[in-house]
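Wed. Picked up where I left off yesterday with Dihydroorotate dehydrogenase. The coffee machine is broken again, so keeping this brief.
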Amino acid sequence: MTIIYKIVPASLWQDAQEAGVFAGSEVDLRDGYIHFSTAQQVVETAAKHFAGQRDLVLLHIDADLLGDALKWEPSRGGALFPHLYDKLDVAQVLCVDPLPLGDDGRHVFPPLA
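Structure written out below (tokens, as returned):
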């Protein structure tokens, strides 16, 4: 099992739960795919794209369940990032954790796979 992660504003995740699918954030919709990160990438992703933001959640997804719609593509510095060229069925999310800010202003992560 390969676990990948998605950082999402809690309100957007609530909307997705009501709809049954997550179509993506504004950036995802603009780029045409849903951005995910691996355990090794997600802390840097939070620091780079979500610095200082509150009310975020961290989605844990089994990449193996996403099929051919998931592509591993080069991004920052050539690292391969998982991109989903489809909507994410909320039933495919294994776990959702809050992603609070610590006293140092950085997000506090749960244990990652």
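Quick read: Residues 34 and 70 are 9 Å apart (CA to CA).
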